[in-house]
Amino acid sequence: MNTHVLLLSDDELLSEFLRIDLAGLSIGLETAGSWDDAAVRLLRHDIRALVVDVAIPLLQSLQRIRTVRMLNRSLVIVVIASETEEASGVAAVRAGANSYLVKSAVPRELVRHLTDVPVAATPSTGATSLGRVIFERHAFRIVIDGTPVALSPREVSLLGLLILLHGRPVSKQQIQDAWMLAPSGWAGDRRRGNSVQVYVHRLRSKLAGTQLTIRTLRARGYCLELNSVRPHEVVPIR
């Protein structure tokens, strides 16, 4: 199974039924119980679709859906809402989801819906503009005021995770997990210990003087701050 769907939900019954139906289509299912866990898994290239249960805290979900869409325009995002949460489903679509389904829909209907949602005709370039910085993850670089700066695979994975969870602490364990789940050839060396600090230091140096700041949070990890970057300045580029 080279294609996977990521389900963000704590509904174990839904997860099991969906896993069985997707297996019949040779599609694997991964599950996450929180956005922190989902962010690590979304860095994998073989995640075709993200299914979000709005029972997960709504305001956080809307913010994360916007960020995920910013980083990946070709990812299919489907939101599941109960009959009484229709407004939440509509809000999620406005935030960047492709569509939403009422939760009473059987998993088989969700599978049909996922396979019917068209994938973008033009593959995403993986480029995101963040104020003066353009993050080109597929090209392994950032561009600062027109000047390209190369990034190692681990730096790309680290920056992508920090952007997905910007404003929230990202632990060393999450970063190491993201490296281990990265596509083949991305993970580089397998050193542990102080390697996280080393890569954070390198990335900080490359972002110096920009609006992106990586803060160290004692005993909690790291946090990316988008200083003076206005919402309209954070946009995906095809």
From TrEMBL:
Residues 4-118 form the Response regulatory domain. GO terms for cellular component: cytosol; protein-DNA complex. Pfam families: Response_reg, Trans_reg_C. Residues 125-226 form the OmpR/PhoB-type domain. One of its GO terms (molecular function) is phosphorelay response regulator activity. The keyword DNA-binding applies. Gene3D superfamilies: 3.40.50.2300, Winged helix-like DNA-binding domain superfamily/Winged helix DNA-binding domain. The modification 4-aspartylphosphate is found at D53. InterPro entries: CheY-like_superfamily, OmpR/PhoB-type_DNA-bd, Sig_transdc_resp-reg_C-effctor, Sig_transdc_resp-reg_receiver, WalR-like, WH-like_DNA-bd_sf. GO terms for biological process: regulation of DNA-templated transcription. Residues 125-226 bind DNA. Keywords: DNA-binding, Phosphoprotein, Transcription, Transcription regulation, Two-component regulatory system. This is Winged helix-turn-helix domain-containing protein. The lineage of its organism: Bacteria, Pseudomonadati, Pseudomonadota, Betaproteobacteria, Burkholderiales.
